[in-house]
Amino acid sequence: MTDRPPLVIAVTQPMCTPYDVEANAHAHAHAEAVHESAARIVVFPELSLTGYELAAPAIDPHDPRLGPIVAACADRESLALLGAPVRDEPSRGRPATEHIGMLAIDGDGARVAYRKMWLGTAEADRFDPGPAPAALDVDGWRLGLAICKDTGVTGHADDTVALGIDVYVAGTVKGSDEAALQHDPARLIGIDHRVWVAVASFAGSTGGYADTAGRSAIWAPSGALVAAAGPDAGDSARATLTCVRAEGPRWRSGR
């Protein structure tokens, strides 16, 4: 069988200024994982463009403030997956809806790639749940997308894996005492479904969190932790995924 090319994926924890999309876009564009590494995929935390501020206005994918990220991705030939509140305009008699979204940004621009399906109680006061699981195809690899609470819902992983994914990718926000709540489900998703798992976790204070967990990480299909960031804003981790279909997955990691 034909080998898929290696896929370099990074998970990163940028500095975040509450509500300041312009400043945060520059922080994303200059994050080590985009600016200095050769990562093809760079994953950012939930609501990384605004902070975990549930009142933050929705961001249009065509917003010119995203320009620095588009330029950085064009320069590095990367695809960035970022967290942002997003709005779906009314159509065919359906009202407008707002979601906790994941934007996919590359050198051609930004688009909404996924909308969070499983919302927390406070989130549901503002946002609507997303309609369906989603996946992206990149260089022969298929990435399933998730946001925070999604990762703890067995049915979400089941339905996302059913899309034929190779990697389950999530952005999260957890308190500093909740690191196990993101690591344990991620590891089990890898083991149960034989897929890679990459989680980018918010670091620093945001929203109602005085301190968040950080410790973004990447797990192999065996459940082995292959790369991990520290607890601080600015930390990141990366891994090179290789997979020979006839032989099963292999991995190399790096910081």
Radius of gyration: 17 Å
* Strand numbers in spatial order across the main sheet: 5-4-3-2-1-14-15
Secondary structure class reads: alpha/beta
Order of helices and strands: EHHEHEEEHEEHEHEEEEEEE
Large-scale geometry: globular
N-to-C span = 31 Å
Mean pLDDT: 91
In the CATH hierarchy, what is the class?
Alpha Beta
Q: Overview of this structure, please?
A:
It contains 6 helices and 15 strands. The protein is an alpha/beta fold. It has a single domain, classed as Nitrilase/N-carbamoyl-D-aminoacid amidohydrolase. The chain has a 7-stranded mixed sheet with strand order 5-4-3-2-1-14-15. Strands 6-7-8-9-12-13 form a 6-stranded mixed sheet, with helices on one face. A hairpin with a 5-residue loop joins strand 12 and strand 13. Helix 1 packs parallel to helix 3. It is globular, with a radius of gyration of 17 Å. The chain starts with 6 loop residues before the first strand and ends with a strand. The relative contact order is 0.18.
List the helices and strands and how they pair.
Blueprint (H helix, E strand, L loop, with lengths): L6 E6 L8 H9 L2 H4 L5 E3 L23 H10 L2 E10 L8 E10 L2 E7 L5 H4 L10 E4 L2 E7 L6 H8 L5 E6 L6 H15 L2 E6 L1 E4 L2 E5 L3 E3 L5 E4 L7 E9 L3 E7 L1
Parallel strand pairs: 1-2, 2-3, 7-8, 8-9
Antiparallel strand pairs: 1-14, 3-4, 4-5, 6-7, 9-12, 10-11, 12-13, 14-15
Structure in a nutshell:
20% of the residues lie in helices and 36% in strands. By secondary structure, it is α/β, with parallel strands linked by helices.
